[in-house]
Design goal:
With about 220 residues, this protein is an all-alpha fold. The chain has 11 helices and no strands. α6 (about 85-105) packs antiparallel against α10 (about 195-210).
């Protein structure tokens, strides 16, 4: 291995070290109360070293989203190309897929939803902003193609597939953030995320399929 490759690998290793530490601190203290110094201490590095890899706390926070966006993209692509599934099965499996994405990393998923709905995006470098936007658009594009395939088979209501993809994603994000807010307000509040998703996706599923198709399956 050449010196250039070794330095590149070391840089990526250090970057991952910082992101792992940041995830732990963000989970424990929350975004607002976390400082760069906290993360540096957890990573056993100096604050100055962190600034060599991330220009500010917002950028470090946002970078954590890339991993879960990639996982979402892979899972959606696998479902899109899966063989032997009926249109109903394909759409129904989205419920399990999105819940799996939540379980893959609940903290980072919640952070990502807060990121997308807040002002943090304005503080990111153009490169990171483009990377997040590109990966988000790719995931929505695959989800849209999945709906488009089902619409073309004549079993789904004739609506813009991208609009359906956005509605489903908004439904998922809203439920996750609502359940998380209940936990924040009251420690006694138990999470009913899976049950709520089951009900919401069942309503969505019934709403997007044509009436005659639904009646044939009852």
């Amino acid at each position: 291995m050449g010196i250039k490759q070794r330095k590149k690998r070391e840089k990526e290793r250090r970057r991952q070290q910082i992101m792992v530490a940041a995830k732990r601190v963000f989970a424990e203290k929350g975004f607002t109360r976390t400082t760069i110094e906290d993360i540096a201490r957890e990573a056993e590095l100096s604050p100055g070293t962190l600034y060599l890899y991330f220009k500010n706390k917002d950028e470090l926070y946002a970078s954590l989203s890339l991993r879960i966006l990639k996982y979402l993209q892979i899972r959606l692509e696998d479902l899109h190309v899966a063989k032997g599934l009926s249109p109903e099965q394909r759409v129904a499996l989205l419920k399990e897929l999105l819940y799996d994405v939540y379980e893959f990393d609940p903290t980072i998923l919640i952070n990502m939803f807060h990121l997308q709905s807040g002002d943090t995006m304005k503080n990111l470098s153009p490169e990171l902003l483009l990377e997040i936007k590109t990966m988000s658009d790719q995931a929505l594009s695959i989800l849209s193609k999945l709906f488009e395939d089902v619409v073309q088979k004549g079993t789904l209501v004739d609506r813009n597939p991208l609009v359906l993809a956005n509605i489903l994603w908004a439904l998922f994000a809203g439920i996750v953030l609502w359940e998380e807010s209940k936990q924040t307000v009251s420690e006694k509040s138990s999470s009913n995320l899976k049950q709520t998703l089951e009900t919401a996706f069942d309503i969505f599923h019934r709403g997007v399929f044509k009436i005659e198709q639904t009646e044939n399956n009852t």
